[in-house]
C-alpha cells in the first residue's frame, strides 16, 4: 500500500513527464521566425528589417517554390508582430505552407512602392530565397 506522500510524488512525476513531452512537441513543430536586412536610399529607412515566418513543420520539396503572403502591419510597424502571426494568418499560412513576410518600413512614402519600398521588398525576398525556396517575383 502506498502512502499519501508516495502517491503525491507519483502524481508530480507524471505531471512533470507530461510537461516535458508537451514542451518537446511544441518545440519540434514551432514555426521559425527570422529577418533579413536591406539597405535603401530612403532617409528614414537606411536599413530596413523585413521579418518572415516559416510555416510550421515546413519541409521543402525539391523543385517546388512556396508562396509568400506580404503583410504590412500598419504605419511605421516594425514588421515583427505580423510575421509572428499577430494578425491571425499563422494557422492559415501553416495549413497551406505559405511564408509570412512583413517589412518594417517607416515614413518616406513607403506606401508608394515605385518610389523605393517595392525594390526593398524584392531585395528582401531574394535574400530569404537564399535560405528557403520561396517565390520572389
Task: Produce a short descriptive summary.
36% of the residues lie in helices and 18% in strands. By secondary structure, the chain is an alpha+beta fold.
Share of residues in strands: 15-25%
Shape: elongated
Count of separate DSSP helical elements? 4
The order of strands across the largest sheet is 1-2-4-3
Would you mind describing this structure in some detail?
The protein has helices at 4-29, 80-83, 90-96, 117-129, and strands spanning 32-39, 47-54, 68-70, 99-103. It has 137 residues and is α+β, with helices and mostly antiparallel strands. It has a 4-stranded mixed beta sheet, with helices on both faces. The longest helix is centred in the first third of the chain and has 26 residues, at 4-29. The radius of gyration is 21 Å and the shape is elongated.
Name a few traits of the molecule.
137 residues; 4-stranded mixed sheet
Question: Mind sketching the topology for me?
Answer:
Layout: H1 4-29, E1 32-39, E2 47-54, E3 68-70, H2 80-83, H3 90-96, E4 99-103, H4 117-129
Parallel strand pairs: 3-4
Antiparallel strand pairs: 1-2, 2-4
